[in-house]
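ok so I'm stuck.
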Amino acid sequence: MEIDNKEENNLAFIDGQNLYMGTNSDDPVWKIDFAKFRVYLKEKYKIFKAYYFLGFVIEENDSLYDKIQEAGFILKFRKHSSVMLGKKKGNVDSDIIFAIMKKLYKKESFDKIVLVSGDGDYKMLVDFLIEENRFKKILFPNKQFASSLYKKLAPTYFDYLGNKGVKRKIEYLKKGSP
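replied:
not stuck anymore, here's the structure
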């Protein structure tokens, strides 16, 4: 009998706005340490590429974008008309869904998808990926704001970033904090 030692080759798609709002709406509020989060995704879910989607570029956030990229995430920004920048929220749901479906359509080499969001707009995608055996896990940033559409999702397919064990591994702690 041959033992398959093949390493999983999974992708992560992070809804940056949802992640930010989820951790900032939690009680108590907490922040993600991007470097720790990237290591966690790699070690726990065998993520070889992690795409971090944001609404649009804001110059004042350049240092944040640098931190995200330095931690090993691939930044993706939603394209907006420059006339609309101040008037639109950075809704990246359709961008993430399209990116995942495009990878499937083009038969790109990867095993499964990990999604980071609590947004119910991804429910049909999650169901489809489960049906196709291409779904690993959805990581909800905040238990309170995870969409009720996921209530019937089997526990093997989700986790909460705010759970003590997970949060302890990925939380940003100021220097000198325990």
